[in-house]
């Protein structure tokens, strides 16, 4: 008997996670731009994590914050595509971590977002990535992430 593959939405539900409404832009920009079969997202932060990694937040809390930021990005993709199964490949993730000058574990923090992508999309979720520390992020958010995503027509 052939087993039915779970959709990304079913995987999110199984993980106990839910997508939200797309957060409104706070400036003169849009949440994403679609060019051919690529989607470039604007950065998405997190509402409930404000402060610096290495001072207000631990690596583990940063990991959770990056997962939440990724959920915000998945909400943008769902809004644009209608269903996340249209994601062909996560191409590139750029993660910004609001961190103290001595904090050097930005990659460990961004693993929260990367791990979620692989949990939801399997091998299609494996991606190139940069994880960088920033002196400050807008509204003192702890995390901001951008994606480049290849989609199926």
Task: Give your account of this protein's structure.
- With 153 residues, the protein is of the alpha+beta class.
- The protein has 3 helices and 5 strands; from the N terminus they run αββαβαββ.
- Strands 1-2-5-3-4 form a 5-stranded mixed beta sheet, with helices on one face.
- α3 (106-121) links the parallel β3 and β4 (128-134).
- α2 packs across α3.
- The protein starts with 7 loop residues before the first helix and ends with a strand.
The parts where pLDDT drops under 50 for at least 5 residues are: none
What topology, given as strand order, has the largest sheet? 1-2-5-3-4
Please tell me how large the radius of gyration is. 15 Å
**SSE order:** HEEHEHEE
Portion of residues in beta strands equals 15-25%
Helix content: 25-40%
Euclidean distance between termini CA atoms: 30 Å
Overall mean confidence score, pLDDT: 95
Task: Characterize the biggest β-sheet.
Answer: 5 strands, mixed
Which structural class should the secondary elements be placed in?
alpha+beta
- How many separate helices? 3
Choose one word for the global shape: globular
The strand count comes to: 5
